[in-house]
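Morning run. Coffee first, then this:
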Amino acid sequence: MKQRIIQVDSFACQPFSGNPATVCVMPRPADEDWMQKVAQEMNLSETAFLYPEGDMYRLRWFTPVAEVDMCGHATLASAHVLWEDGHLPKDVKARFVTKSGELIASRSGEWIELNFPAMPVEEVPVPEGLTEALGVSPLYVGMNRLHYLVVVDSEQTVRSVKPDMSLIATFPVLGVIVTAASAGTEYDFVSRFFGPAIGIPEDPVTGAAHCGLGPYWQRRLGKDSFIAYQASARGGVIRVIVDGERVRLAGQAVTVMCGELL
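And here it is:
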């Protein structure tokens, strides 16, 4: 059976920026091994697979090497495809059943807002080898169930980090976030994300990371709403609102490619 597959640039207002994800909207569940092989073939940070489940969609995310529990940019891409391909009316919210519970996406003009669980970090001692792995001295290290969050002294330090990926891959987390307050007035904070242990050396724009970044910067800056920039080579803008135990993440999306798996 042929399967339509779509590539979307998420957290992007124009093609070839933001974070690319592939999306497969299927009529029914698929074999897990097949999904992993498709993700490996696509060779992007995430491939999303979804199918109807009642009045919602079951959504799963795969990197080229593993399934993950949460992914922001591929969720945004999935919602974009549901609306653009006519699976859902554009005024109806997209509701997903996932390993991280129910996730909701809604449209506001050209922006798509995701409602995700907050994942605050708790301060931990600097892990052995982390300074060497990043080549910078952390001001603070926090940890949640998915990531280390490393705060450094400046935006320039964030942008200039050249991590040792082999060392980063040894830590007991899915990825390491490096962040600092923005040096300018356009953004509140900047970040980068490294996840070599799950096949993503550097992720261009990471929605799930902002479920920890939002609560951290809420405490530091004393406000709930932020404009964030992920300073990868492709770059991407995320609007972040911390709302109690939830974090609302908003971004734009652009379809760049459609095809069929034979």
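The first strand starts at residue 3 and ends at 10. Good start to the day.
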